[in-house]
């Protein structure tokens, strides 16, 4: 694999989220540089950025390793999203552009169509694009960046079950866009809060308690923290 140097951080982050690198596994500059077809300089810079974002930690005698979040840290992320998503919607009602509305309405039409047909294959990606666009419509780069990081980390830590009512979920998306289009920030905030709280119930941790993790390690034939790159 060969990618542009400026995209190394994104590539490593995506692979961490996808589970290519196990929690606690070492991330050596040499192997990462070889995998992505770059020098060690952009890899080193990427690891610093990922450490600041919480995906990577530096350990004495081991160097850079994939972080091992606790259950409390994971729960905190969902709570933060429940607080920030409604804020972004309220800001979007005040600051959105016609271009934002066009994209949001198009995504709602596609999502509602797929939901009615029972075609759930791309509903998750459509939902991700919807919330990303909604955050961008807030007109706040800092808020957009925080929500983007939250989505990456939540996707890493949680498996999301298919929603029991995708039609209802996309109806809520439509209600959010209607409020944003009318400039009704309080309505946008309230509908988004309800939608986000309902969506949170579908999240299930990808990792269990410390005791469960210890038990898996004891039963494993592989040494702890010796994850290697998958090819």
TrEMBL record:
GO molecular function: DNA binding; DNA-binding transcription factor activity
Domain HTH gntR-type: residue ranges: 2-69
Region described as Disordered: spans on this chain: 211-231
SMART domains named among the record's database cross-references: FCD (SM00895), HTH_GNTR (SM00345)
Keywords: DNA-binding, Transcription, Transcription regulation
Protein origin, superkingdom: Bacteria
Amino acid composition bias (Polar residues), ranges on this chain: 220-231
Stated name of the protein: DNA-binding GntR family transcriptional regulator
Taxonomic source organism: Streptomyces violarus
């Amino acid at each position: 694999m060969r990618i542009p140097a400026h995209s190394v951080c994104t590539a490593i982050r995506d692979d961490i989220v996808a589970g290519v690198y196990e929690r606690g596994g070492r991330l050596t500059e040499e192997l990462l540089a070889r995998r992505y077809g770059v020098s060690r300089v952009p890899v080193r810079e990427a690891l610093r950025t990922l450490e600041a974002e919480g995906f990577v930690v530096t350990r004495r005698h081991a160097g850079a390793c994939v972080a091992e979040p606790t259950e409390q840290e994971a729960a905190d992320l969902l709570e933060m999203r429940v607080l920030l998503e409604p804020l972004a919607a309220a800001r979007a009602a005040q600051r959105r552009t016609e271009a934002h509305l066009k994209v949001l309405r198009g995504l709602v039409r596609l999502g509602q169509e797929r939901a009615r047909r029972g075609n759930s294959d791309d509903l998750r990606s459509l939902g991700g694009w919807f919330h990303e666009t909604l955050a961008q419509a807030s007109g706040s780069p800092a808020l957009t960046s925080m929500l983007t990081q939250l989505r990456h980390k939540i996707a890493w830590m949680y498996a999301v079950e298919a929603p029991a009512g995708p039609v209802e979920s996309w109806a809520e998306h439509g209600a959010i866009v209607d409020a944003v289009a009318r400039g009704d920030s309080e309505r946008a905030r309230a509908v988004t809060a309800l939608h986000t709280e309902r969506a949170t119930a579908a999240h299930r941790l990808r990792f269990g308690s410390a005791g469960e993790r210890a038990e898996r390690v004891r039963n494993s034939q592989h040494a702890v923290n010796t994850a290697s790159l998958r090819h």
